[in-house]
Known about the structure:
The chain is α/β, with parallel strands linked by helices. The chain has a single domain, classed as L-arginine/glycine Amidinotransferase, Chain A (5-stranded Propeller). It has 6 helices and 15 strands. It has helices at 30-46, 91-100, 136-146, 164-167, 218-226, 237-240; strands spanning 5-8, 50-53, 70-73, 76-79, 104-107, 119-122, 125-130, 152-157, 168-170, 176-178, 192-194, 204-207, 210-214, 230-234, 251-253. A 3-stranded mixed β-sheet has the order 2-1-15, sandwiched between helices. A 3-stranded mixed β-sheet has the order 3-4-5, with helices on both faces. A 3-stranded mixed β-sheet has the order 6-7-8, covered by helices on one side. The longest helix is centred in the first third of the chain and has 17 residues, at 30-46.
Amino acid sequence: MPGQQALVRRPGPRIAEGLVTHIDRRPVDAALALRQWERYVQVLRDHGWQTTEVDPADDCPDAVFVEDTMVVFRNVALIARPGADPRKPEADAAREAARALGCSLNEVRAPGTLDGGDVLKIGDTVYVGRGGRTNADGVRQLRSAFEPLGARVVAVPVSKVLHLKSAVTALPDGTVIGHPPLVDDPGVFGRFLPVPEESGAHVVLLGGGKLLMAASAPRSAQLFTDLGYQPVLVDIGEFEKLEGCVTCLSVRLRELYA
C-alpha cells in the first residue's frame, strides 16, 4: 500500500448553498468549482498521493469539505460529528471509505460535536480548536480516543474564523503559520510565524518541502520560498467563497502506511 493516501469528495450540485458564518455570501460558480477541485486532486496525484473518492453526499452542500468528517491519528480514524446539523449526514460515506482503507474506527457521539477542520496535528501534538463547530465534549472525546495512542492533545480557542485550520496550519519543521488578525492566541503554539494573507495560513504538506497552497496568497508563497520551501499554487477561489481552504478539501492519511 502506498505511503500517502488522500480521501476526497467531488463538489455536489448544491455547493452554492454551502454554509457561511464569518464572511458575506457570494455567488459560487459550480462548474468552475468542479474544475478547481479536479486540478487540486491532480496536484495531489502528481506529488505521489493516491486519492480515493468518498461517495457523494449530494444533499449536503458542504460535503466537498471532506476533511471535516474525520480525524486520523496513527491507524485510528475518529469519525466526526459535525457541529452544523445539515452536515451530519456527510460522515456516513466517509466512515465506509476509512474502513475500506484499513483504519480502526472510533466516533464522536452526542452531545459531542467535532469538525475535522478544527484539528491540527504536528507530530504527536494534536491541537483542537474549541469554537463554533467543536464543543467541549467533542474535545473530551478526542482526548479519550488519541491520548492512549501517545497523542498530546492541546485545546485552543477559536472565535474569529470557522475552524482552527482556517486560522493556522504548520510548515514541515513544525512552525505554526497564521494571519495574526484571525488567530485568537498565537502564544499557545511553540513557534509561530505570521503570514501576510489570510489564505497564506493554509498549507498541505506534499512532501519534499513542497507546500500545496492557494494561488490567492502570493506574498505568503514568496515568504515560504525565501525559507527554502517550494509552494505549489492552486486556484480554489470558489471554495474560498464558502470559507474553504486547501486543507479541508482532503483527508490526508500518512500514518497508516508509514
